[in-house]
Each structure stands twice: as structure tokens, then as C-alpha cells.
Amino acid sequence: MRLNGTIIKGIGGFYYVKASDNVYECKARGVFRKERVTPTIGDKVIIDVNGEKGSITEIMPRTSSLVRPPVANIDTIMIVVAAAEPDPSLELIDKMLVNAEVCGIKPAICINKTDLKSREDIVEIYQKAGYEVFCVSAEKNLGTDKLFEYLKGKTTAFAGLSGVGKSSLLSLITDDALETGEVSEKIRRGRHTTRHVELFEIDGGFVLDTPGFGQLEVEGIKADELQNYFPEMADADGKCRFRGCAHINEPDCYIKEKLENGEIAPSRYESYKAMYEKLKTVKDWLLK
Ligand SMILES: Nc1nc2c(ncn2[C@@H]2O[C@H](COP(=O)(O)OP(=O)(O)O)[C@@H](O)[C@H]2O)c(=O)[nH]1
Ligand SMILES: [Mg+2]
Ligand SMILES: [Zn+2]
User: Fold this and answer.
1) Is 237 helix (H, G, I), strand (E, B) or coil?
2) Less crowded by CB within 10 Å, the N or C end of the chain?
3) How far does the centroid of ligand 1 lie from the alpha carbon of residue 234, in Å?
4) Pick the CATH number of 223-287 from 1.10.357.10, 1.10.40.50, 1.10.10.10, 2.30.30.40
5) If one looks up domain 2-59 in CATH, what number appears?
């Protein structure tokens, strides 16, 4: 029997493929090695099924590929921060946003622990930049309806510093999706603490924990390309006096005007400048 499915985890040479209402333990046919495609978590595949076991016969083209960790077809990277404990760093949020944009995956922001503190300041900065922002409390189960609604039908990776509440949120989200109770309490409690990457099914989509994603320095792009990854700078084309304006020291700069009018948040602009300078240094060093 042939089925369409999604690879949700891989352990010891086996791929676990969710198809219709079952999970099948699958092997991959040797052909993928020849074609230099490795089945990856998140891959949409066709499997040949025999009882509970199967083999992967085809891998569908990927819409996105994350490298660290390797996961295919992620639609959204949900950048999770805490309203407090730990205090959020705008610089880190901006770095993670750019890293997601560079991967070609749409980012969104989730501010957790809003029971401790309201963060309208952060909401304003990022909504103005064009991002979706969710304010929730995993502990008090506040604001989660809107978040759950957004996750429907998508594959969403939850990223962010340790302690911000990713595991708490994922437990809430997946327990909610599994209300029918086919999974025992014991399994449930353990499953968001494991170290391997695994997709968890929710309403028509999947969620996963990618704790370390996006926290490293932005790399692999030229300094002059950086502005393409700041949505609020996307409309600058042809509006500055100089072609190829970096929006830093040039006169008659449209982005500087937006900054002065309050259309771009100062913290966003500062992050842009800091990343730009860093990217410039890397390039100079490589050229020597
Ligand atoms: N006050 C408050 N604490 C929370 C909330 N969500 C999680 N925590 C606590 O924050 C700590 C870290 O949570 P955890 O889910 O393990 O974070 P992770 O490291 O990002 O996976 C735990 O002690 C949680 O109980 C919340 O909404 N409000
Ligand atoms: Mg965790
Ligand atoms: Zn400019």
C-alpha cells in the first residue's frame, strides 16, 4: 500500500513516518544515497507500507531546509522570549529574525511569561517592523488561543534561549491537540525533554523544539544584502539619494528619515548597524 506521510523522527537508521492516522517505522531505499538526498525530519514522503513497517520510496521537493538542526519544510520559526526571567534581549531577537529570514523561513515572535510583566514596548517594536507578535503565559494558559489558531496547518519550530518556556508551551500545545488521550501521562511528561529532534502533530500541522536556532552571528550574506532581511527597510529601493545606500553615513537617506519619523524603532536600526559593521569586518578579513 502506498501512502503520503511526513517524517517525524529518525532513530538508529529508521525513519518514523506519520501517515493517515498511524506512525510507520520505515527504512529508506538506497536510491537516495545515489541522488545525494538524505531523508530528513520534516520531509514529505511516499512510503510503501506492509503492516506497521514500510519503506520510503519518494521524497517531495522541500519548501525550506534548516541546517542546524536539519529539518525540512518548516513554515515558521517562532522566536520565544520571556517577558522577564530571563529578561529579553532585543539584539538577540533581531539576530534570530535575520537568521530566520536568511534561511527563507518566516519568523514570528512569542512573548511568554506575560503573567510576570506586560511587554507592550516589545510588541510595538516588532509589529511596526511587520512581524506577528503573540503575548502568552504558558503557566496561566493566557493568550494561547490566538497562538494555537496561528499554528494550525503549519510546521512551526520553537526557538529561543533556555528558560523562556519553550517546553512548557509545547506541552500545552500538544496536550491540547491530544485531548482525546491516546498517549499516557508518563509519555507525555517526558517527551519535550528529550534531546533528539522530533515533530509533534497538532491541528493539521506540526511543532518542534529547536532550542539553539538562530543565536549565532549572522553569516553567509554580504553586508550590503543585510537590509533585505529587515522588512521595514524593504521599501527603500530607489528612495535614497545614493544607489546602494547602506543607510548609515549617507546623506538624504530614506531609512534615516523613517527612523527620525519613528517609523523604524531605534533598537532595530541599532541592531542593523551592529550587524552591518560585523558583516563588513568578516568580508574585509576574507579579502586579505
Ligand atoms: N511565570 C511563568 N513561568 C513560566 C511560564 N512558562 C514557563 N515558565 C517557567 O519557566 C521555566 C523554564 O520553562 P521551560 O519550559 O523549561 O523553558 P525552556 O528552557 O525554554 O524549554 C520553568 O520553571 C517554567 O515553569 C509562564 O508563562 N510564566
Ligand atoms: Mg526546554
Ligand atoms: Zn539610505
Assistant:
1) coil
2) C
3) 35
4) 1.10.40.50
5) 2.40.50.140
